[in-house]
Specification:
By secondary structure, the chain is α+β, with helices and mostly antiparallel strands. The chain folds into 2 domains: 91 residues, Phosphorylase Kinase, domain 1 (2-Layer Sandwich), CATH 3.30.200.20; 216 residues, Aminoglycoside phosphotransferase (APH), C-terminal lobe (Aminoglycoside 3'-phosphotransferase, Chain: A, domain 2). It has 11 helices and 9 strands. The radius of gyration is 20 Å and the shape is globular. The protein starts with a helix and ends with a helix. The relative contact order is 0.12.
Length: 316
C-alpha cells in the first residue's frame, strides 16, 4: 500500500520505533498516479511524503529532476530522504498556499507572485543539465500529436460522445504539431499552472516538475497566462504579458503563442475529460467550460476555428 510505504520510509528517516505517533494527512493533487501526504509527528517538523506508481514514466523522474533543479538554484522543495526502490520520496513541506488559492485576491496584489513565477520559468529555460542527464522525451511533433489524440479520445469521444474521426484526419492538427515540434532546445516544466506554483515568503516555488523536458518556452508561458483554473480576463492576460516582457525584454510572437495556448488547452481538456469519466471527480467539470471558451478565443480566425467549432459548441 502506498501509505504503508510512506510510513515505513518516514520511520526509517526519523529513526523512531512504532511507538512514536506519525500521522499522514492526504493531499489531493491531479491524476498522476501518485499518493501525496503531509507527514506529522511530535519529533520533527512536518514534511511531505510522495509515493508513485509505474502508471506514468515521468513519476520516476521526480527525484533526479528535483535534485537537478535544486542544484540549478531554482526554488523547489528539498528532497530530504528517498527510497527510489520503493518509489517513495520525503520532501520539504512548503505549505498549502498556491496561486490558485489566491484567485479571489485583487489581480494587482497577485502580480508580484506572477513576476516571481515568470522569473523561475525564465531561469529554468536557460538551466543546463549534465550531458548524461536523463530527461523525458522532448516536445517534438510526436508528443504534440499525442496530446491532440488525448484530447480527441478523452474529451471529444469519451466525455462528449462525439465522433472524432474527422478531427484525427484533419491535417490542420498534424501541421500544428509539426510546426510546434521543430524547436525543443530548452527546458520546460510542462505543467506550469497555478496549482503547481506554491507561495512561501512572498516567492513562488515550483512543484510537480517530474515532466521536465526540452521544448518551447511559449508552452509554459501559455499554460500560465491561459490557465483555466484562474480564467484571467483579457486585460489580466495583457498585464501578464507586459510583466513577462519586462523580465525577458520581449514578448512571445503572437501567432506562435496562441498556437501553444491552443495546444495546451486541448491537452488540459483531454485531462479533464479523462478525470471526470474515469475517476468521477466533479471538481474538474466547471473548468471544461472555461478551457473551451479560452480555446475558442485563441483558435478564432485561425485554421483551428472551423474543425473545433462543433466540439466547442457541444461544450457550451
Amino acid at each position: 500500500m502506498p501509505t504503508e510505504a510512506i510510513l515505513s520510509t518516514a520511520r526509517q528517516f526519523l529513526g523512531v520505533d512504532p511507538t512514536v505517533p506519525i500521522t499522514l494527512e492526504p493531499i489531493k493533487r491531479g491524476a498522476s498516479g501518485r499518493t501525496i501526504v503531509r507527514v506529522k509527528t511530535p519529533v520533527h517538523v512536518p514534511f511531505i511524503g510522495i509515493h508513485w506508481t509505474e502508471e506514468r514514466e515521468d513519476n520516476a523522474q521526480y527525484i533526479p529532476v528535483g535534485n537537478f533543479l535544486k542544484q540549478a538554484k531554482l526554488r523547489v522543495p528539498e528532497i530530504i530522504h528517498e527510497r527510489a526502490r520503493y518509489r517513495v520520496a520525503l520532501v520539504e513541506d512548503l505549505g498549502d498556499v498556491d496561486l490558485f488559492s489566491l484567485k479571489e485576491r485583487p489581480f494587482a496584489e497577485r502580480l508580484p507572485l506572477y513576476r516571481s513565477a515568470f522569473e523561475q520559468v525564465d531561469k529554468l529555460f536557460y538551466a543546463k543539465p549534465p550531458k548524461d542527464f536523463h530527461l523525458m522525451p522532448p516536445f517534438d511533433a510526436a508528443l504534440y500529436r499525442w496530446e491532440q489524440q488525448y484530447f480527441f479520445e478523452h474529451l471529444v469521444e469519451d466525455f462528449l460522445g462525439m465522433d472524432a474521426t474527422a478531427l484525427r484526419k484533419n491535417p490542420v492538427f498534424t501541421e500544428l504539431a509539426e510546426r510546434l515540434g521543430t524547436v525543443a532546445r530548452h527546458l520546460v516544466h510542462r505543467d506550469f499552472q497555478s496549482q503547481n506554483l506554491l507561495v512561501r515568503d512572498g516567492k513562488v516555488w515550483l512543484i510537480d516538475f517530474q515532466g521536465l523536458r526540452r521544448g518551447r518556452q511559449e508552452y509554459d508561458l501559455a499554460s500560465l497566462v491561459f490557465d483555466p483554473y484562474m480564467d484571467h480576463s483579457a486585460d489580466e492576460r495583457e498585464g501578464l504579458l507586459k510583466l513577462w516582457e519586462d523580465i525577458a525584454d520581449e514578448r512571445p510572437e503572437p501567432t506562435l503563442f496562441h498556437e501553444c495556448a491552443a495546444q495546451r488547452l486541448m491537452q488540459a481538456l483531454g485531462a479533464y475529460g479523462n478525470i471526470l469519466r474515469n475517476r468521477g471527480d466533479e471538481w474538474y467539470r466547471p473548468h471544461i467550460a472555461t478551457a473551451a471558451r479560452l480555446l475558442g478565443e485563441v483558435a478564432a480566425d485561425t485554421p483551428l476555428e472551423t474543425p473545433l467549432a462543433p466540439v466547442l459548441a457541444a461544450i457550451r
